[in-house]
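Figure 6 in text form: structure in, sequence out.
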């Protein structure tokens, strides 16, 4: 029987967050926070979170400020930015996880944006594992040609025009994903259309990242068929961290008898599908085993 999640409000009163806590079933192996991808509401992760909890991994999901269950008031009035989501909100969620599970190991799983805050956080000794999935320093020319028209429309045509007119990104109306606060969209656009990614925001909306700070073992994971954050972008991100504490893991859908893992769908259950939509073998590899292909190439390169 799947665990029933508990609604957990947390964070400062100025930017309250709403999470869902999936308590571990049986003996708890670890407690895990799942930092979500940009524009992906926490409800999308509910099947994965329940699956993890059934295997003894208590899991906290949540929505970033002014998004999903954490939205307060009209989205066009939100001052939220990507930096708020990647730094302050992720930090608040990690502290809430420690309060929910006062003993035992803590894990951090970051999906896409959720894994880009690693160098901006400090981790207590109880954090024994950090996993990122599809987290990379993506530039718009990294995408395959088949996906590029959609990317160019999102960053240079429909996305900026609609955001300028409406005061927020009306992603649902445009068929480009979820609605997002304007500040989130504009900062996201800046990162993904500049070669330095978030470098121009360091010292402004972002603190100085410390890629060389001691951190728990870091696993940077990506599906080989991810066109949103292609493996090359994950490799670019991985190169900033000390290779002695970092592992790059490639997930080929064929290994699990699947035709597709992708970017968002890796952690989701498709429409009308059962738990995991057949992705459980990949989930098991992601969290409980380490049998996915490990890239043996050196990770540290010129920054």
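Output sequence:
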């Amino acid at each position: 029987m799947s665990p029933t999640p508990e609604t957990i409000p947390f964070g400062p009163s100025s930017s309250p967050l709403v999470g869902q806590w999936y308590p571990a079933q049986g003996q708890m192996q670890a407690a895990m926070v799942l930092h979500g991808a940009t524009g992906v509401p926490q409800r999308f992760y509910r099947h994965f979170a329940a699956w993890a909890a059934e295997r003894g991994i208590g899991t906290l999901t949540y929505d970033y400020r002014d998004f999903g269950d954490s939205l307060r008031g009209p989205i066009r009035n939100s001052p939220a930015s990507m930096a708020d989501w990647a730094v302050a909100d992720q930090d608040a969620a990690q502290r809430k996880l420690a309060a929910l599970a006062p003993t035992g190991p803590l894990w951090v799983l970051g999906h896409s944006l959720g894994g880009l805050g690693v160098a901006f956080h400090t981790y207590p000794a109880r954090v024994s594992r950090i996993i990122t999935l599809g987290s990379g320093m993506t530039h718009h020319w990294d995408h395959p040609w088949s996906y590029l028209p959609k990317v160019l429309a999102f960053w240079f045509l429909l996305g900026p025009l609609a955001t300028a007119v409406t005061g927020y990104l009306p992603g649902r109306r445009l068929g480009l994903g979820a609605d997002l606060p304007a500040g989130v969209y504009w900062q996201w656009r800046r990162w993904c259309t500049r070669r330095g990614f978030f470098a121009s925001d360091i010292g402004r909306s972002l603190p100085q990242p410390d890629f060389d700070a001691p951190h728990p073992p870091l696993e940077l994971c990506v599906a080989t068929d991810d066109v949103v954050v292609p493996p090359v972008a994950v490799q670019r991100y991985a190169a900033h961290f000390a290779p002695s504490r970092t592992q790059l893991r490639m997930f080929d859908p064929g290994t699990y008898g699947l035709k597709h893992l992708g970017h968002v769908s890796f952690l989701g259950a498709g429409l009308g599908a059962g738990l995991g939509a057949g992705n459980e073998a990949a989930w098991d590899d992601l969290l409980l085993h380490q049998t996915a292909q490990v890239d043996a190439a050196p990770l540290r390169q010129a920054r």
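Caption detail: Residues 6-139+207-294 form a domain with the Rossmann fold fold (CATH 3.40.50.1820).
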